[in-house]
Amino acid sequence: MSDTYSEGPNYKVRDLGLAEKGRLKMDWAESRMPVLMKLREEHSKLQSLKGMRIAGCLHVTKETAVLVETLAAAGAEISWSGCNPLSTNDEVAAALAKAGISIYAWHGMNTEEFYWCIDKTLEMKPTLTLDDGADLIFSVHNRHPELAETIIGGTEETTTGVHRLRAMARDGALKYPVIAVNDAETKWDFDNVFGTGQSSLDGILRATSVLLAGKNFVVAGFGHCGSGCAMRAAGMGSNVIVTEVKPTAALKATLHGHQVMKMDDAARVGDVFITATGMKDVIVGRHFEVMKDGAIVCNTGHYDCEINLEELEAMAKSKRLVRDNCEEYTMPDGRRIYVLAQGRLVNLAAAEGHPSEVMDMSFANQFLSMVRLATQGKGLEITVHDIPEEQDQQIAGIKLKTLDAGLDVLTPEQIAYEDDYAAGT
To answer: Quick one: which of 271, 310, 345, 410 could link to 414 by a disulfide (CB 3.0–4.6 Å)?
Structure first.
């Protein structure tokens, strides 16, 4: 990949000449995100975010671009970076820069560049932060604590980030309130399950083009993301094996018809492995030692620590890139193990991320949470807050209307019955 960039006073992207292609992608996403577009129409008139400066750190996809332009339409000043070194779409980043959005993001950045981009977004001295993985929030707390004094609040998009922030809140280290967008029902039960399931398999297929039918497909973790991967793999004809540390999750996987076993055992029989746990060292050296020749290994968790590639590198006698996002590690005994997307999120690094239709609800939650913080944030307790139930139902209701789905309404008598504790047999 070229090391040349397009730079301006408020952006650094791979190539500004890609903007036209990026705009086409964004137009496509807009046509499939009716909830967010309805909010854009409403709040562009209200200017609900006028005076707000939003620093965002979230995957630069076509769907994210729709969110960014919706925030800007509502009056906010924006500065953006990508939240993963391999998840930025350079065409979309160029289109945002061309549209006047302050953005620092490109595909393939290293760790130093990644944090440089975050630091650039903070030069605007934000009043709100929007995060995916909590690296932006952590950068404020760790390297720029003085900025926390004028930040009203923030949001967090993903499970891993929410876990980090709840730990910070428990330790009393959190300096401003954060809304856990990830924990909204219209996020985790749709984005995490259906979005991750479909896009992760999309990434695997783009990187390998293998037949999934008949293969042993090992899913590490049966949370929302893992269950979505298991569901889609089973739908493609795979024999799904689940590994878990949580008894209730393992039991759910069993009752969904999947085989549950320890990773030490699954490593010997799996053909395709995907980690979705948020925990480090899920697949390590001893597992690589017993994997089949041709085993495919990938990750869909936020960070790249779930697969211990350092141990694999030390064991392998050679490594080569055989396809885009597919590296072949040859072991001393001749076995070949294929790692996808360098162990990073396979759905974003090797594919396009979640479909627009499901991100519509997640990003509607992000947008409404920004509006909530802008109007109510100064009165919120400094902790991690949940999305209000009314917001969840509002977003789901709007989405249903766009799908032409009918919805029953309780009668006054039924509403009264709900709270009638004296009613019985």
So the answer is: 410
